[in-house]
Give the backbone structure.
Amino acid sequence: MTARFSGKTAIVTGGASGIGRAVARQLSDEGCHVIVADINSDKAREVAESLPTRSMAFALDVTSEAAWGDIMNDAEETFGGLDILVNSAGIGFADNFEDMPLAHWDAMMSVNLTGTFLGCQKAIKLMKKTVAPGSIVNISSIAGLMGGEDIAGYSASKGGVTLLTKSVALYCAGKGYDIRCNSIHPTYVDTEMLDPVAEAFGDRQIMLDGMAAQVPLGRVAKPGDIAGAILFLCSSEAAMITGHQMVIDGGQLAGLPAQHTT
Ligand SMILES: NC(=O)c1ccc[n+]([C@@H]2O[C@H](COP(=O)([O-])OP(=O)(O)OC[C@H]3O[C@@H](n4cnc5c(N)ncnc54)[C@H](O)[C@@H]3O)[C@@H](O)[C@H]2O)c1
């Protein structure tokens, strides 16, 4: 076991599943205490109990300001403060734009954007009390850097996360807080979030093959691919990186595939 995060404390929202669960595992494997925060409290408990370091689950609805207050109190009382926040909780709906229910729009804005805002705001208040540097990583998407024909609400919420992150980074730097804030922009990641899409396709492998065909490296991402980059941003190796949008897309946004030669 390496000790990159030995003695540190992290809150990982969406920690019960997918990318968040992979982050919780990798952080704990490297010595971090992890608060696995998720609206799915049973799965959060399962993940927390499987971790090698002293960790705990917290039933957090990221849209609740009061719940964010409670989790920060728990972090301070149980672990003495907070070093890392990874905002991974997220939801997505795909819709024909003209028919998109307002409820889908509202839910994505609330969880993806308001939830991330509340997390950043409450984490800063606790992190600035401690001497150790703090790091916040927000999970946006490649859809937070470009639009999507049938994911307008998701894309708008993730675009909000992109610029919220830069603003938080500048705010902390301007105040002289030793707290960095960066965003992560994954391509398709094979997690539970894709389950409804796979169901619509009728076959998960056909869905994954179609997605992989859009990625120059030829495959969709695994949760561990994303977690590794998040750990780098949380570590002291990234001490000079803030306000950055880290794209993890197998080359998808790099440019156009060959269309002019055979
Ligand atoms: N999977 C992908 O293809 C992909 C691609 C780009 C970005 N992302 C983003 O990565 C993040 C993680 O996605 P994932 O693929 O791991 O999804 P996932 O569905 O596996 O995990 C998301 C977790 O968020 C939790 N959650 C949902 N609403 C919540 C709420 N109100 N409060 C607290 N927890 C809540 C869920 O219970 C779940 O455990 C999301 O923000 C997602 O938008 C995913």
